[in-house]
Design brief:
This is Glutathione S-transferase. Keywords: Transferase. Belongs to the GST superfamily. The chain has 2 domains: 9-103, Glutaredoxin; 109-222, Up-down Bundle (Glutathione S-transferase Yfyf (Class Pi), Chain A, domain 2), CATH 1.20.1050.10. 47% of the residues lie in helices and 8% in strands. With 234 residues, the protein is α+β, with helices and mostly antiparallel strands. The chain is built from 9 helices and 4 strands; from the N terminus they run αβαβαββαααααα.
Length: 234
């Protein structure tokens, strides 16, 4: 049996099955990237729910795994060379799991890098911009009298949806007929934007043709449906 005791996080969130990949996460747009990925590829894992509202990401145990204090993070007991691998940052985890299993990432070098560029696009643009719009539209940012920050993030979020809209013209998925980690990286964020963030109307979502269809196709995938609720609420 694999010994994960060297990782302090396992003291607070013990591994019942240390031979399985350990997922430390919450069902946020970033968190569900990894749970959806794990469900899609069928890799056995053990999920640990991290309570963001209770600031559990800032505990010494969690920070020992991700010093940036953000979910998701993993420990793969069967990492490169058969040694346990701790890893944080959702984009890095998607790439790692794709390469580990040979799934959801094209093997053709050109298409592989094309897929990765869209994952980086999500990490650098969609996540930060949609998240800021959510803050200024739904949360404490609404109390700020100066509406220029809100308008900046609203306009930029709408523009980014337009980028995805253009990319999906004539394509079922971001990479065409092939569902990949590029799609997985975006599903939770687009869903959150029009749902939890209540920004559907202000970004003109229903005026789009391709993005709504793409999201609908993604959300009916059984693995996506499961992954959106992992780790489950206790």
């Amino acid at each position: 049996m694999t010994d994960l005791s060297v990782f302090p996080i396992t003291k607070r969130w013990p591994a019942e099955h240390p031979d399985l990949l350990q997922l430390y996460s919450a069902p946020t747009p970033n968190g569900v990237k990894v749970s959806i990925m794990l469900e899609e590829i069928g890799l056995p894992y053990e999920a640990h729910r991290i309570d963001i509202g209770a600031d559990e990401t800032w505990t010494p145990e969690f920070l020992s795994l991700n010093p940036n204090g953000k979910i998701p993070a993993i420990i793969d007991p069967e990492g490169p060379g058969g040694k346990p691998l701790p890893l944080f940052e959702s984009g890095a985890i998607l790439l790692y799991l794709a390469e580990k299993t040979g799934k959801l990432l094209p093997t053709d070098p050109a298409r592989r890098y094309e897929t990765i560029q869209w994952v980086f696009f999500q990490m650098a643009a969609i996540g930060p911009m949609f998240g800021q719009l959510g803050f200024f539209h739904k949360f404490k940012g609404r109390e700020i009298e100066d509406k220029r920050p809100f308008e900046r993030y609203r306009a930029e979020s709408q523009r980014l949806l337009g980028v995805i809209e253009t990319r999906l013209e004539g394509r079922e998925w971001i990479m065409g007929d092939e569902f990949t980690i590029a799609d997985i990286s975006m599903i939770g964020w687009v869903r959150n934007l029009i749902g939890f963030y209540e920004a559907r109307e202000i970004v003109g979502f229903d005026e789009l043709k391709n993005v709504p269809g793409w999201l609908a196709r993604a959300l009916v995938r059984p693995a996506v449906q499961r992954g959106l609720d992992i780790p489950a609420k206790e």
